[in-house]
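Need tokens for this chain, all 192 residues.
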Amino acid sequence: MLISALRLTGFSSAKGANQIYETPVSTVKNPAQTATRISRPQIHQERPRHVAQSPTRRTQTPDPGLIRVFMPAETPKRLRLRRAARLSQQRDFARVRRLGQQLALGCLIANWHLLPDGAAPRLGVVTSRRIGGAVVRSRARRLLRESFRQHQNEFTQPVELVLVARNSIAGKNFAQVEKDFLAALQRAGLFK
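Here are the structure tokens for all 192 residues:
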């Protein structure tokens, strides 16, 4: 059993107040001490096996119903949408709207302005509050950006593209948004 004892000291601090210290004091004389247990590493321990588990050393026979698919020797280039590939300033959006062309189809409106050869395609996304709350607008932006990201290397010529989400985008999945994206850009003649 432990009792806390308060000890007041006569020393004063710089502010002139007495300092109080708490010290644990045991009321049991010579308590019994238990031996310290130190565990040893178990080097050769294995996980218990399930009763129905097959032996690990046996080779598996291929299933005759499966079709073997060979992967290409080279992996496809990783598609990224860097910050430099995004339109972010209001003047960029205004320039595309003023100088470019427009097409509305499905759940989006596409505004584009052709760039000179050698430039990288750039994307801007507009979602208004009429679409829905912040969660719905953020999802719409992500879906439109992902559609652009996956098809950014298929343009016939580099473009600055502004996609405006329409009210019908709310509740659509990626496949539906991508379908509208591809249809709009093929009708505009921007894809190969």
